[in-house]
């Protein structure tokens, strides 16, 4: 029970913060409404001439309503000695629900009185002045000059219900409003709290290693959007984790074979006494070390091109010269194959020369392994960017295998297998080079009958750095 109550603490904090915020907003709104309404009421909303007319009409009306009271007050005070007037008025105060007092004539005339009120007071006549009006009532000042003296009886009335009466009258209704408001707010915050709690529990489970944990995406907005964003992030993290596990397993598998051969060669070298056999064993060991070195270099290149790596620094690249030089450099691997370059004159693009050379070289080397007699490279450039396609007349790649061709350590069956060499990282590096160039790599069937691998990337994407490469 205590644990359940402890789990509801966030709901209580959320509820009371929203509830207090709404109450404060209502109070401020009501205060502002009353102020604006008061300003729209006469005499505040009238100009000078209209205000004087309103003051005269309201004054006459109030004077007619209070003339009996004024006559009684004057009669009672004039029946007493002037020295006792203050004492008499003080004795009346407990019986009046509003202030009543004696003031000197000069103090009254020093007030900002309307002209009509001054004229009546000068003639010694009772006068009434509606000082202000508002939604909470009107403030009225009643002046009664006392004959034969310089004193006036001043009464300050507020016509309409006072604040205390308003509170007493609306107390029950206000309580009902606050209760209904609280219930409505609770009905709104409870589903929000429930969905947020579930999302937090899912995030906690995912953080503890349950990569299958997913949030409920059918929650109301904006929680639904947060849940879908979390699920997308979880999918990417799970996929990256799976790829990392697969890569680690593949790396251990790739390392096991040359290391096993090295152990075997060392054993044979110790056992043999024949110099020629020993040199042969050393030659095999040298090949295995070279294979390990090549694998290490490919792994380093692959990891340098991860998604969070610094952006490549771009420069102008002569693609036709690059492909021609790669033909010359890679011809030693298949001297009988005569590659052909298809380009309309000089084709210059932009990108990282180092990594573009690596990617195109990997494609040409891969095509050399599988081509029977022909290898064509097409280089094009248009307003959108650059395209390089490498075609061969080999066995091709089945459509169902093309999506996973760019995954690391992937080798396809049949003729495109381990016997052709490589570690399965060449095309994975090509894919990451294109990602770093904000482009893409794709596989299709070549017109020659084999495979066509196409690289496409824009001229200079947003955020690219122009200079040399810093990786």
TrEMBL record:
Q: Would I find Membrane among this entry's keywords? A: yes
Record carries keyword Membrane: yes
List the InterPro entries hit by this protein, alphabetically. Answer: 2C_sensor_his_kinase, HAMP_dom, HATPase_C_sf, HATPase_dom, His_kinase_dom, HisK_dim/P_dom, HisK_dim/P_sf, Sig_transdc_His_kin-like_C
Give the transmembrane region(s).
14-34, 166-193
HAMP domain residues: 190-242
Membrane topology field: Multi-pass membrane protein
Q: What is its main location?
A: membrane
| Record localization | Cell membrane
For this UniProt record, the keywords arranged alphabetically read as follows:
ATP-binding, Cell membrane, Kinase, Membrane, Nucleotide-binding, Phosphoprotein, Transferase, Transmembrane, Transmembrane helix
Q: Which residues form the Histidine kinase domain?
A: 250-461
EC number assigned by the record: 2.7.13.3
State the top-level EC class: transferase
Task: Give the reactions, separated by semicolons, that this protein catalyses.
Answer: ATP + protein L-histidine = ADP + protein N-phospho-L-histidine
Its protein name is histidine kinase
Its lineage reads: Bacteria, Pseudomonadati, Myxococcota, Myxococcia, Myxococcales
């Amino acid at each position: 029970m205590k644990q359940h109550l402890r789990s509801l603490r966030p709901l209580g904090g959320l509820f009371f913060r929203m509830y207090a915020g709404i109450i404060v907003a209502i109070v401020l709104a009501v205060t502002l409404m009353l102020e604006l309404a008061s300003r729209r009421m006469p005499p505040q909303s009238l100009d000078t001439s209209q205000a004087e007319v309103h003051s005269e009409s309201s004054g006459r009306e109030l004077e007619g309503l209070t003339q009996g009271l004024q006559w009684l007050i004057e009669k009672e005070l004039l029946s007493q000695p002037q020295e006792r007037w203050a004492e008499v008025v003080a004795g009346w105060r407990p019986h009046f629900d509003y202030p009543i007092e004696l003031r000197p004539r000069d103090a009254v005339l020093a007030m900002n009185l309307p002209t009509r009120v001054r004229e009546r007071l000068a003639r010694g006549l009772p006068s009434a002045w509606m000082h202000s009006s508002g939604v909470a009532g009107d403030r009225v000042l009643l002046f009664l000059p006392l004959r034969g003296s310089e004193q006036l009886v001043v009464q300050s009335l507020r016509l309409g219900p006072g604040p205390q009466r308003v509170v007493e009258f609306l107390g029950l209704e206000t309580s009902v409003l606050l209760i209904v408001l609280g219930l409505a707010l609770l009905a709104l915050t409870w589903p929000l709290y429930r969905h947020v709690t579930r999302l937090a529990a899912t995030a906690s489970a995912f953080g503890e290693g349950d990569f299958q944990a997913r949030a409920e995406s059918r929650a109301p907005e904006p929680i639904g959007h947060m849940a879908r964003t979390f699920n997308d992030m979880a999918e990417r993290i799970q996929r990256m984790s799976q790829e990392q596990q697969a890569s680690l397993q593949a790396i251990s598998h790739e390392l096991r074979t040359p290391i096993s051969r090295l152990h075997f060669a060392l054993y044979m070298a110790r056992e043999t006494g024949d110099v020629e056999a020993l040199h042969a064993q050393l030659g095999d060991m040298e090949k295995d070390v070279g294979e390990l070195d090549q694998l290490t270099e490919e792994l380093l290149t692959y990891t340098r091109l991860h998604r969070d790596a610094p952006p490549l620094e771009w420069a102008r690249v002569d693609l036709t010269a690059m492909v021609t030089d790669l033909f010359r450099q890679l011809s030693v691997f298949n001297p009988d194959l005569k590659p052909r370059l298809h380009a309309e004159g000089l084709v210059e693009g932009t990108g990282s020369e180092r990594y573009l050379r690596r990617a195109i070289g990997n494609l040409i080397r891969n095509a050399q392994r599988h081509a029977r007699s022909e290898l064509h490279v097409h280089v094009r450039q248009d307003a959108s960017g650059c395209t390089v396609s490498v075609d061969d007349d080999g066995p091709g790649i089945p459509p169902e295998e093309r999506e996973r061709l760019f995954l690391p350590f992937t080798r396809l069956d049949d003729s495109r297998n381990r016997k052709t060499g490589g570690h399965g990282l060449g095309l994975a590096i090509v894919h990451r080079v294109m990602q770093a160039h904000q482009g893409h790599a794709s596989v299709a069937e070549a017109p020659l009958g084999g495979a066509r691998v196409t690289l496409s990337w824009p001229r200079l994407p947003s955020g690219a750095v122009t200079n040399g490469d810093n990786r």
